[in-house]
Design brief:
Layout lengths: L5 E5 L3 H14 L11 E5 L6 H7 L5 H14 L3 E3 L9 H5 L9 H12 L5 E5 L2 H5 L2 H5 L4 E3 L3 H12 L11 H15 L5 E4 L2 H4 L11 E2 L1 H14 L1 H7 L1
Parallel strand pairs: 1-2, 1-3, 4-5, 4-6, 6-7
Helix pairs in contact: 1-11, 5-11, 8-9
């Protein structure tokens, strides 16, 4: 059975694009180079900012995202992943313009939580304001109570991602981590049992060791799903 080719619709941002590729490499069971999965990446950092488009009527990213998806389709990928959670707000619009599937990281995260943490009832979400305002996780996480940072903490989260010296500028230092931990602490008083790294930049720095709670990372979940899909593991299980 032919191994499928993974397409990464990237550039949103480049660091997250690099990281999901790295995780695909690290999480693939191999003995030498030839055992790795073929991956084609279009890291289009010129795609307009998704949060600005959603919240402030900025330039729509759809045309650039569709063009990038079509580039990957022409290049011969079998399916696409997007290492940007906020970009999933536009996933249906992109999907209707191409013939190959896009794996939905939000849906896969929900499946992971249901399987791995079935007893958890309250989830804290750290994400961009665009993701929160459009209720992407609220709609995706079935049967879970979603707890969000208060206004002050949400502004700090956004500054940690987008601000001067933020994660998008390459800052993954302990200073960025401390600010995110502060936001989590405010949600702990509301009884959260786990935290979702709802922006892929957050998943670059936040781990459970800093907050003494499980950290659910859609970037890793998406990487594992991409590997399974490329190797058609689920189909093989169904046949057996």
């Amino acid at each position: 059975m032919r191994e499928k080719v993974i397409g990464i619709l990237g550039g949103m941002g480049p660091e997250a694009t690099c990281e999901i590729f790295r995780r695909i490499i690290k999480l693939t069971d191999v003995e030498d180079d030839k055992d790795h999965i073929r991956v084609i990446i279009d890291s289009n950092s010129k795609i307009p900012d998704r949060t600005k488009s959603i919240l402030y009527k900025g330039v729509s990213p759809i045309n650039e995202m569709v063009e990038t998806a079509k580039n990957l389709e022409i290049a011969g990928v079998d399916f696409i992943i997007m290492p940007c959670i906020t970009a999933h707000y536009f996933i249906d619009e992109i999907q209707k313009n191409i013939a190959i599937p896009i794996i939905n990281a939000l849906e896969e995260t929900n499946k992971y939580v249901e399987k791995t943490y079935p007893s958890i009832e309250k989830l804290g979400i750290l994400a961009t304001t665009g993701t929160i305002k459009m209720q992407l996780f609220q709609h995706a996480m079935k049967g879970k109570e979603i707890i969000l940072p208060n206004k002050e903490m949400q502004e700090m989260v956004m500054d940690t991602i987008y601000g001067v010296g933020g994660i998008k500028s390459g800052n993954t230092s302990s200073h960025a981590i401390k600010k995110l931990v502060s936001a989590v602490e405010t949600m702990k008083s509301q009884g959260i049992e786990a935290v979702v790294a709802g922006c892929t930049e957050i998943g670059l720095v936040m781990t459970s060791e800093y907050i003494n709670l499980p950290v659910i990372d859609p970037l890793t979940i998406l990487a594992k799903k991409a590997i399974d899909t490329a190797k058609e593991i689920e189909e093989a299980k169904a046949i057996n």
